[in-house]
Design goal:
389 residues; alpha+beta; D-Amino Acid Oxidase, Chain A, domain 2; 8-stranded mixed beta sheet; 27% strand; binds flavin-adenine dinucleotide
């Protein structure tokens, strides 16, 4: 079998790329280790930036999103019972976030690709990348029925997430890794609970951070800062709700938190990671395979989709004009945005935790929040990074 491009991984990066190049007339195959049911029900992110939405619209894949997604233009900060809002849409070009769960994005992308005759092999295993430094790399894998498959290609798109095989196929001498552990841990909770807020809430409390994010009219995501080394099983439902009530509470307000059945609970690795360059020979890394970022700032899925569009354009250029300029600049083009997002996420991490590193940083967090609450210029800068640029 010979294909122009092999896409490894059917997450937001791989599926966006597959649709983009399919619509540019470039032949590809997608190899995914999980089942279709699994990838279409994996709840993770839920915030799409305007650029991601515009790109899905241009591919004709945004009908369901535009019909059902909530639009958000403000977020709320709570500090020990006091609150203030930042109306970031008003401060930055009327741009908004779209609240649409990642698994719904994945469903739309899978449906769009298959409707146009796309080839996705789900539930594959033992994916191996060969001859990446040559002009005809190949990929071998084992199908669900146990048969071995092999495909020769021009390019491999490594979209298999942080723990995938693609980045590991690159000789370590060819890469530089940047990794930072933020020194805090979060319990991520998904609950069958309608949102208790119209705007995302970031709460700084002496017990630790708490966050209330929106996902759908019936499902909400919550985050709780937990002691380093905590296991998710240490947090019973009762303990989770008690902590959320306490940390999110407001003085002099009738605001209340609606509880619901907890459907997922996991401790997040609050680590940032970037690899440079994002390519080796004919292998190009996209999304979490090349960089991970904390959920603070809601950038991960959007960066993955941006990589896909950047690589898709470079491929379209290569196959229509023969120019490899876009392929050569792919890594630098993506990394500029990745590092800017990392800087913003790190800035926010330091602002919404009372105890990153030392009490000194706790005081800096408080000063930063007070500055944000009171300065229009600081809010405008926040808005540019949060919803734009
Ligand atoms: C709890 C949580 C909350 C988050 N919240 C947000 C948020 O609010 N906003 C935001 O923007 N981002 C958020 N993120 C991050 C976001 O989910 C990721 O950045 C995004 O999924 C990256 O997409 P991707 O396609 O690069 O990787 P993935 O979504 O990880 O997809 C990789 C795919 O490759 C497959 N795969 C892995 N190994 C192999 C292999 N060997 N062979 C074949 N296939 C393989 C996997 O099964 C998977 O389907 C969150 C993440 C988590 C975990």
């Amino acid at each position: 079998m010979k294909r122009a491009v092999v896409v490894v991984g059917a997450g937001p990066a791989g599926l966006t790329l597959a649709n983009f190049i399919q619509q540019s007339g470039i032949d590809c195959i997608v190899l995914e280790k999980s089942s279709r049911i699994h990838v279409e029900n994996r709840a993770r992110a839920g915030v799409l930036e305007h650029r991601s939405v515009a790109m899905l619209e241009s591919l004709g894949l945004a009908d369901r999103l535009l019909a059902t997604a909530d639009r958000h233009g403000a977020c709320e900060f709570r500090v020990n019972g006091q609150s203030f809002q930042v109306s970031y849409s008003d401060l930055y070009g009327s741009l908004q976030h779209f609240i649409y769960p990642q698994q719904e994005v994945v469903k739309d992308l899978v449906a769009g690709f298959l409707a146009n005759g796309g080839d996705i092999r789900f539930s594959v295993s033992d994916v191996e990348l060969r001859n990446l430094a040559s002009s005809t790399p190949s990929i071998v894998w084992t199908s669900e029925d146990g048969t071995r498959g092999e495909v020769l290609c021009d390019f491999v798109a490594g979209c298999d997430g942080f723990h995938g095989v693609c980045r590991k196929a690159i000789p370590s001498t060819e890469l530089t890794e940047f990794s930072h552990y933020h020194g805090v841990e979060w319990l991520a909770i998904l609950a069958d609970a309608p949102p208790s807020t119209k705007a995302v809430i970031y709460a700084l409390h002496t017990d630790g951070f708490a966050g209330h994010m929106l996902r759908s009219p019936t499902v909400s995501r919550f985050y709780l800062q937990v002691p380093v080394g905590t296991k998710a099983s240490d947090w019973s439902g009762e303990r989770v709700w008690n902590a959320l009530h306490k940390r999110l509470s407001l003085q002099d307000s009738t605001w209340s938190l609606t509880e619901g059945k907890i459907i997922e609970k996991r401790v997040l690795d609050m680590r940032s990671y970037v690899v440079e360059p994002m390519s080796y020979g004919r292998l190009f890394l996209l999304g979490d395979a090349a960089h991970i970022i904390t959920p603070v700032g809601a950038k991960g899925m959007n960066l993955a989709m941006n990589d896909a569009v950047t690589f898709g354009r470079a491929l379209a250029d290569y196959y229509t004009t023969g120019s490899d300029v876009g392929l050569k600049t792919y890594s630098d083009d993506c990394l500029r945005r990745v590092w800017r997002a990392q800087e913003f996420s790190q800035w926010m991490v330091n602002m919404i935790h009372a105890d990153v590193g030392s009490p000194f940083f706790g005081r800096l967090a408080r000063a930063r929040l007070e500055h944000l609450a009171s300065s229009a210029a600081y809010q405008a800068s926040f808005a540019e990074n949060y919803v734009g640029p």
